[in-house]
What does this fold into?
Amino acid sequence: MIRLLQSEDMKQATDIAALAYPGMQIQSDEKKKEFMERLTTEQNEDNGIQFFGCFEEQGELLGIFRVNDFECNINGKFQSIFGIGMVAVHLLHKKEKVAFQILAYFHNYARQENVALVSLYPFNPSFYRKMGYGYGPLLYEFKFKPAELISDGNKSQVKFLTPSDEDAIVSRMINHLCIVFLIPQMIQIM
It folds into this structure.
């Protein structure tokens, strides 16, 4: 079962994060307390951040993740986009498909909220490849259903691209480096 973390879940969530992210240096009791307070504060504020947990039937927390809800300017129109972060699985429950459940839930949650664009920073690209994300040559082909695009009927910014536009596209991508993916069922990555 996956649900929003409650204040009583924060200790387990902190323990999972401490083991999953040793670089965060939250192993001491003092640092864990600070981190738990941060999680609780961020969860309770209206800041577009929500922490979720994947629980087994007996209530043990198996994994955690953060959903960031923000807006992205796409062709001059701001659209809702979800980001997933801090995906962490309890050390004793690795290789039990917990992270797979988390990503599947995240994709379904985005669909339920009518969010067609999601983003992540892949710490483990091979895992995300199994989830339908891809990496490879610098050529990515995105296929949208026309209904997915926002349109007010103004086509003044629409044009066919040619090979001469390649340098401008690469420059723009490098200047705005962010790994953004569509939900895998809506994307074809070449």
